[in-house]
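If your schedule permits, I should be very grateful for your opinion on a structural question. What I wish to show you is a protein chain and, alongside it, a tokenised description of its three-dimensional fold. Would you kindly read the sequence against the tokens and tell me how you understand this chain to fold? Here, with my thanks, is the record as I have it:

===
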Amino acid sequence: MFFEPKRYKYLRLLMYELYYITDVESFSFNPQKYPDSTDWKECIAALQWSMENTDYDYQKLLPNLRFSNAEIALYLSFLHENISAEVIK
């Protein structure tokens, strides 16, 4: 499983919200929370990689997250579905 450095950057950007939510199943995706310069195609590519590599240790991308690796994978799956629907129209 090869992890490209730019995928790391985009997954970290998307995972940063995990510091501020209490439940990975009850939050809403809001693309306006992200910088205008966010490259959504790269974010989607990183999320697609995460869907293909669910056994990756996502906890090492951001230290001190309160969520398990399984919860992070669930959050990324939710984002994968919703970013595709919300951003690429």
Remarks:
- The radius of gyration is 12 Å.
